[in-house]
Design goal:
Elements lengths: L10 H19 L4 H7 L17 H21 L2 H19 L5 H23 L2
Helix pairs in contact: 1-3, 1-5, 2-3, 3-4, 4-5
Keywords: Membrane, Transmembrane, Transmembrane helix
InterPro entries: Phage_phiKZ_Orf197 (IPR021737)
Pfam families: DUF3307 (PF11750)
Length: 129
Amino acid sequence: MLEFTQHPQTLVQGLVLLFALAIGHSLADYPLQGDFLAIHKNRHVKHPAQSRDFPPTLWIHCLLAHSLIHAGFVWVITGNVFFALAETILHFIIDAVKCERITSYHTDQLLHLGCKVLYVVAAMMMSRG
């Protein structure tokens, strides 16, 4: 957990926390996702027929793994396990909706950023008692 992001009380501290969460999101969504997770988290990806290496439910495992990577960053940065749990669930849902082509890539990213803003607001409210 990063000491400076534990209990944001001022606008500047809140913005620092948001910046740290945005960096974590960028790392988790791009270099740490990798091609395998990026491709196989989508349930519509076509796999070789009858392949034991690619069970029909592989997408669930890949999407959950990707969501947990994001949750790990949220937990380390905020020190709050409840934010991490929320991130796991929300990231899974937001990415699943994107894979269904209900939302666009840009909407997906805005929703993820919106979650980070909510964590900052909640952290600031909790730090004020």
